């Protein structure tokens, strides 16, 4: 049984990776209408609501253990805020309760907003991701790289933390209010590099500050104005701001640190050129609209677009463009071992674990604040949590919350329906077993198939497997890995036969590869 699980896991990983590639993100098949993945577990929202008490307990313990002044959280399912909560205070002096309407600075969670603005301009034909950033920031034309063979920094390098700038979290946090002139002078003076562009991941706040400058140059609008007009207002995020003086003061969360067993005020920084990397101020209620936008990008489908960015472009943001780390020793907060891999998309982090669960989102940390939002597109589920203590980070706890919700609510990921062509080929295939009579004239197999496999060998092997399985009593349902490949079982009295096949890219797809093996019957 273990061998079967391992093989299936590898196939699923490959199929899921394919599903994230740009080629798989668009287009329609010639061999029938595309059938998007669907949820098959009924009563999903009600099941998730039953987890509210358990989730509240997780956040309460986190709040108390970390000495947080305030903490707010929200759980989103299928684009709706299912429940939310808060502990402590947004403003300690005024004893303002931390609530879903409280406005917290969410630090580097802001980066995906900047990335989204870049993709809006790209989709409008106003820029290209692989053109030099110096086209829009002239000061970058004179950059001196580490090597003479270094490529020019592109917009895509900036989006994926691949520009070669050094990791700059402590320093970058203190540049939030710098003016555009100060940022450009830094570039004109010649910044230092830790890597050649394009060869490694290294987190760079400077890179996203530069993306903010590109948004301004290309749009002809100040960064605040552009994002307000083209992202926040259309999404109904009416309380969201970049400059704290423009926030509704009664709802504004102030920042603190825990020093010498007491909370110390951390003054708020004004919005400046580095706001594009981490300055956004929003609430759980407002940010729900943004989370819903991203969740609605999945699955790929034919229905009309309705968001501020095309679904295909949102999925492009979610794609793991630059590998960050392999995590062979990763453990969930409950101690469960599960090796994982981490990568960076456009302003978003991507993680896939050993159970093929995919997590997409971003953390934030600034003096006075910590935050995280994480979504699981395959489950239509997301959680967000903001606090007001320096680097109070909720990444780990949000992962624990998602894991708890899925376990308690017994949520299942979307299931991909069987495409018409897969079902057709399965039914045609079964008819030639076990003798393979007329297979070469059936029109079922691609031109390579019988060059790669002799019919007499196929027939011999199939008969041996039939004998091992015993009388075949039924044909199992097709289990698709995508539109053009999958597995099904022939149910035998002694064992089952697992058949995997994959189809060609031709207009009328044919079987190009087929594997059969006997597997133990699962206990009923």
Which properties best describe this structure?
single chain, 524 residues, alpha+beta, Nuclear Transport Factor 2, Chain: A, nine-stranded antiparallel beta sheet, five-stranded antiparallel beta sheet, disordered N terminus
Structure description:
- By secondary structure, the protein is an alpha+beta fold.
- Among the domains are: 2-35 and 416-519, Nuclear Transport Factor 2, Chain: A, CATH 3.10.450; 116-219, no CATH class.
- The protein has helices at residues 2-19, 44-49, 52-65, 111-123, 155-159, 169-173, 180-189, 205-219, 223-235, 275-278, 284-295, 311-318, 395-409, 420-432, 449-452, 455-469, and strands spanning 70-77, 80-91, 96-97, 104-105, 255-259, 262-266, 281-282, 322-327, 340-344, 349-353, 358-366, 369-376, 381-387, 472-475, 479-482, 485-492, 496-503, 511-519.
- α4 (111-123) runs parallel beside α8.
- The longest helix has 18 residues, at 2-19.
- The two termini are 14 Å apart.
> Which outline best applies?
globular
Strand order, largest beta sheet? 3-2-1-13-12-11-10-9-8
* Distance from first to last alpha carbon: 14 Å
Sketch the major β-sheet: 9 strands, antiparallel
The number of helices is 16
Task: Describe the structure concisely.
Helix content is 32%, strand content 21%. By secondary structure, the chain is of the alpha+beta class.
